[in-house]
Amino acid sequence: MKSADGIVDINPMKNNSSYVVCRSLNSEVISIWNVRKAKYKGQAVQLERGLVDGTNIALVRDTKLYILSDKGMAIHSETPRPIFQTLLIYDLVKKKYTTKLTDLHIIPCLKHEYRILASEQLLGLSEYRDHLVLWNLKTGFIQERVRPNYKDQFCPLNGLPSHSNYDFYNEHLTTRKRGGDSGGLSEFMTPWEKRTETKTAQRRRLDKEMEREITTLKQFCKEKSNPIDQYLLSGNDKVVVCSYFAHHLAVFNLETETHTHTLEDRASMLFLHCAALTDGGGHLVLPNYNDEDKVSYVTLWDLCTGKVRKRLKNEPNVCCTAITNSADRIVLGIAETNRLKVWDPFRKGHKTIPGYKNLNFGTNNSVHLTDGGSKAIVLAGDVSVWDLDGGNVLSVFTPDSTIATMTLAAQSNLILLTMSNHHVLITLALTPKNKLRLASGGDMFGEASSSSSSEDESKPLDQPHPSGN
Fold it and tell me: Which of 62, 184, 310, 425 has its CA 20 to 30 A from that of 161?
């Protein structure tokens, strides 16, 4: 394998935890690795070449390879736009194409913005990136367009508009002004200034305040037309949270194909770059900076109600987050100070765990929780395992090369790594070999069975394989 064929994407199989499917740069090489048997460490059990070229997009789910190809122009639309016209489904076990769908209208997106769902659907973005699109992979046609449904109402809790109805806001604010209610919009005035203010000056001041408020509401209203900046998909493929480079987030339910909630914070821009979503899609944790208070927060949102559940104050420089499925534990990676913060939002208090000497949170950071939230696996230059209950670092794996990507498999008991200048999949075990539970059964890809090698799954993290595996 050439150096250009280095692994950039790792996809553990959901129906068989013994195997992972890896994709090289430009998807020109698809490799399958057996992580259960030590005999096959350092070598792929199957390689597929020539299935994808630079103009196609390859997506992997379990043993199926979905290839979007035949890029052309949409001739039936008012504005000609590029589209993918063919969908090919390749079976990695049978080593043959099983499905070919043509004359399709699949909108091009960035590769990471496509997701293959368990319900045999392809999730992507629309032409103008303003809503989600679901394609049926059995027919290849659009099944549903999931659009945000911002209701025409004014939210009294945070003062955010929900629709571009300016007359509504003008009437609402005029009513407040006539009633003598400034709604907390007045600037700070000393008792002396209030006593000496004339009625004419008070009227001018209230008019300026209302004009500023209407202008602000219009700006927030325009943000509802922003394109999707990023989205997160829950582990069960049911909940999607979209950010719009704005002061709001939209929550969608893919089962009902509806817009369920709009998360709004007038004083904070809401981004998903360092956010984490629970596997069931019930809670979202994200760092945000409050422009009015000049304070950084970590906010836990309840996506079932669309409201803030808990909030942690004075937490700047959060570069990565992780959350348990029950949302009872949240772990934050703090840059500059290079430490972990453990926050149990439904209990009182939180604690900070200092990092080790070479810990360095940079651009490629991630934190994952395992063992029910009692341990954390951190990627920050190297890979480290933390005991969150005990408050210390258990083990550190420092490679000679830069780690390109990291993924957990086998119920988060197996760490899968790739290096920037190497094309071999590296496996690290968190538990002793007799406790590592991987799927048993025959070899799916025809590799020879070996009783001596079937017992040795992987080396523990603190004892890396001599060859780097």
Answer: 310
